Amino acid sequence: MAQITDIILYQYFRRRQKKIQHVIDHSEQYQDRLLTKILLRNRNTAFGKKYRFDSIQNIENYRLAIPLQNYESLYPYIEQIMDDAADILIPGKVKWFAKSSGTSNARSKYIPVTQSYLNDGHLRCAWDAASHIYNENPEAKLFAHKNLIMGGHLENIGHGKVAGDISAIILYHFPKIGRRYYTPKFETALLSDWDIKIKKIAEETIREKVTLLAGVPTWTIVLLREILKKSGKNNINEVWPDLTSYLHGGVGFEPFRSEFRKLIPSHKVGFREVYNASEGYFAMQNDIAEEGMLLLCDHSIYYEFIPIKEVHNSDPTCLGLEDISTYESYAIVITTTAGLYRYVVGDVIIFTSVRPYKIKVTGRINEMINAFGEEVSAYNTDLAIARCSQQYNVTIRDYTVAPKYMNDGDKAWHDWYIEFEQAPNDLELFQKSLDQELQKINSDYAAKRSFDLAMKNLKITTLPKGSYDAWLRSHNRYGGQTKVPRLSNERSFVEELQLAILKHQ
């Protein structure tokens, strides 16, 4: 029966590829129709009435009528929805909220998630990811064996409302046709205690035929190591010989790529990036041989883009798809069917191609270092440390970087705080190579490092194992999709980190 289901779904995925291609060829038209649909559907909400959705005729009207939003500006509306008010941002009431704590801000954010937004967005995107996998590998057999998706957990927040990681919400609403092909048990997948969850997932999946694996790299690595520990096997291919795909997202993958290839050495297993945030499922890699993720233009999200140089202006330029350029940095702005309007997500992206529109996440608006004019992004540091880790056979758990400012005539430098799983034999040589690699990647950094005139060689502080876990636990953010801040223009995070380590010891 499973084999028959797989064959039937394969035929569906072939047809879906034709629809996907039509969207690729007519992305702008799909986006225009979507915005019209959102304004029409939500015109009688409190937000729609305030900004007179019924009088908006085109995108120019829309941009003039509605200022750019962030979580703080939308929170008074979201708070009303959480208190069980109806017709605030979207018609009716909302039961589900994607809980996101981001990186540096300890305050949790609650993003409304409607059933239609799940169906037309996140869940539909999951089917499209399967479609891309089958398009590249007709023998994937995702619905002949089992899929393992690392999820978070759910919590009741009052008034009959439920909040949790978007991954947990997706799992809870998994369609019945897909549940029989999922492992572990849903009760296990949604456990809140990650120490217990990892052990139980390993126990329940170790003898399954897993064909697809999905999850945030940091926590997936923890799971895979637990599975190898329990099984006594050398690598994951020995445990799951049918594995063909790993879907990853949430953090930059490059620092972890070499470790994943050690854990999963078979090249028949493709690593595919997805951009599935609390606010929406924005993009996915439709071709693992090509850089960039396909921007999803017919999945309930309308996009605008702010040139990064204008992101802090009071009235920045906002561009549509027809006006973007490749390899320019933009802040991504979204309008969704779930009630986010001109919402600045906080991520910085570049377009690697147009028609098809493909993007790459390069960092966060407030997560970069430009203390001395070096303009270093997380994309730069991820790539540099990935290359050096491969060169020196090094494995990292996580890292963060902060500037060390000039003091008493001394030059400035970048302080790197790295928790190694496998440290370099010669830390000083690794440190020097990392600095040189970063100069190759970022010309602004290279200019500031020229002849050591403005900045000295970066410095690495090696952290004890468990340091980043200690920080996450101290902020009640251990597990799920929470992540460590990569870069900052100031040193408050590294000071917090050092305090958490002292308490942990």
Q: How confident overall, as mean pLDDT?
A: 91
- Helix segment tally: 18
Helix content range of the residues, please?
25-40%
Overall radius of gyration: 23 Å
Low-confidence stretches: none
Q: What is the number of domains?
A: 2
How would you classify the quaternary structure? single chain
- End-to-end separation in angstroms reads 54 Å
Second rung of CATH, namely the architecture of the largest domain: 3-Layer(aba) Sandwich
Q: List how many beta strands DSSP finds.
A: 19
Derived structural class: alpha/beta
CATH fold-level assignment of the largest domain: Rossmann fold
Q: In CATH's first tier, which class of the largest domain applies?
A: Alpha Beta
What's the arrangement of strands in the largest beta sheet? 3-6-7-8-9-10-14-13-12-11
Which overall shape is indicated by the principal axes computed on the Cα atoms? Answer: globular
**Proportion of residues in extended strands:** 15-25%
User: What is the CATH homologous superfamily assignment of the largest domain?
Assistant: ANL, N-terminal domain
Characterize the biggest β-sheet: 10 strands, mixed
